[in-house]
Amino acid sequence: APTWVGQDQDSWGLDHGTWSVLVHMFPDADVPVVQLSIDAGKDIGYHLRLGAALEPLRRRGVLVVASGNVVHNLRAIDWARPHGGEDWAEEFDTAVREVMTDRPADAASLVDHRHYRKASPTPDHFLPLLYLAGMAAAAGATTEVFTSGCTMGSLSMAGYSLPGT
């Protein structure tokens, strides 16, 4: 509360951003899953506040997965480049890492970064980061990097976690 959350029983199932992560973590599909849809029409602060509102679930032992790519520009992919990113992609990825590992409450400032629009031409892959940032800020904590690196010039496969319960 006050945000209404309802069940969509007529959906097509899990989104690829959810399924592609969970299939590796829980290959037997033996855990209940609640997937939240992203409302890209809401402002950045809304997403940070929603993350903060989810933080008590984490303290109760609920696994919250926010799946996306902080650098996700499919139009700029270089299929011949399996490792590394363009300078703009690496720079934005580094800025995200600095914010998330030092001051996640400031994650909204990333939309003002000079490469934000190129790194995230649509918000759907960036916004999940704000849920984690909001959770970390509410917990008075920072996140840890569990995987990093750019690929194909314009994708970042960076992953962050909020340790502890």
Fold blueprint:
Blueprint: H1 16-25, H2 44-59, H3 87-102, H4 116-119, H5 127-139, E1 144-147, E2 150-151, E3 155-156, E4 159-161
Antiparallel strand pairs: 1-4, 2-3
At a glance:
The chain has 165 residues and is mostly helical. The chain has helices at residues 16-25, 44-59, 87-102, 116-119, 127-139, and strands spanning 144-147, 150-151, 155-156, 159-161. The protein is 36% helix and 7% strand.
How would you characterize the overall build of this protein?
The chain has helices at residues 16-25, 44-59, 87-102, 116-119, 127-139; strands at 144-147, 150-151, 155-156, 159-161. The protein is mainly alpha-helical and 165 residues long. The strands form two sheets. Strands 1-4 form a two-stranded antiparallel sheet. Helix 2 (44-59) crosses helix 5. The longest helix is centred in the first third of the chain and has 16 residues, at 44-59.
